[in-house]
Design goal:
There is one protein chain. Strands 1-2-3 form a three-stranded antiparallel sheet, covered by helices on one side. It is mostly helical. The mean pLDDT is about 95. Helix content is about 60%, strand content about 10%. A hairpin with a 2-residue loop joins strand 1 and strand 2. The protein contains five helices and three strands.
Length: about 110
């Protein structure tokens, strides 16, 4: 089952690259920004509960899809880019086993214990 889930996340990650390719941004923006959603981990400097909240906001694919959709429909390329990057990053993280966090510990995720 783990391999099937990883294959699904790889497909979602590749989909984010495809949607990025539809934008007018230079190719180097994607690798330059793909790790930027990890800024959400800074919440762990406050405590585990706040860290889980900020991490999950920056790794929630629903938020990513909403941002990309709003950016696309409103003609705001930076908003579209933010959504595509968030979606790709969340998929990459989940492919590597990093899921959404529970408030008790960084290692306790919806995909299981790290």
């Amino acid at each position: 089952m783990k391999n099937l889930l990883r294959a699904e996340e790889l497909t979602a990650f590749l989909l984010s690259i495809y949607f990025f390719a539809l934008s007018d941004y230079a190719w180097w923006w994607y690798p330059a920004l793909i790790l930027s959603p990890d800024i959400g981990m800074l919440g762990y400097l406050v405590n585990a509960r706040f860290g889980a909240l900020t991490y999950n906001i920056f790794h929630h694919r629903g938020i990513a899809i909403l941002l990309a959709f709003l950016g696309f429909t409103s003609g705001l390329p930076p908003l579209y880019l933010a959504g595509v990057i968030l979606f790709g990053h969340a998929s990459l993280d989940r492919m590597l086993g990093y899921g959404l966090k529970y408030p008790d510990s960084f290692k306790n995720t919806h995909l299981g214990e790290l």
